[in-house]
Design brief:
The protein is an all-alpha fold. The chain folds into 2 domains: 6-73, Orthogonal Bundle (434 Repressor (Amino-terminal Domain)), CATH 1.10.260.40; 82-115, no CATH class. 68% of the residues lie in helices and 0% in strands. α2 crosses α3 (32-39). The mean pLDDT is 93.
């Protein structure tokens, strides 16, 4: 079974929400032709449009950005501020389970609260 493309994911999310191409286009502020091109993987869309699609389809924005092979501006800023630390951290944590990532996130949130 092949992996779902960005366009296929948008198409399946739209259909699951029973939203027409025109209605989604209206919510995202693009043409319905543009939505059709996105769903057929004919165009690479902007981060802004991806974020609007996530909101309109009530879907996780980071997941859609990843599926479109891009990252949010906030994440890009973090990487630029820590160009060696962040990649090293991610490489060291690459084999963590979902439960371990959740625990790590909770620990980081605790550290952030203490620092304020």
């Amino acid at each position: 079974m092949s992996k779902q493309t960005f366009g296929q994911l948008i198409n399946s999310l739209r259909k699951a929400k029973d939203i027409s191409l025109r209605k989604l286009a209206e919510q995202v502020d693009v043409s319905f032709v543009n939505i059709a091109h996105i769903e057929n993987d004919r165009v690479k869309t902007s981060k802004k449009t991806i974020i609007q699609l996530a909101k309109a389809l009530d879907h996780d924005v980071d997941e859609l950005l990843a599926k479109a092979e891009t990252i949010g501006d906030d994440i890009e800023e973090i990487i630029l501020k820590q160009p060696t630390a962040l990649p090293a951290f991610l490489r060291s944590a690459k084999n963590l389970s979902a439960a371990q990532w959740n625990e790590l996130t909770r620990q980081v949130e605790k550290i952030n609260k203490k620092g304020k």
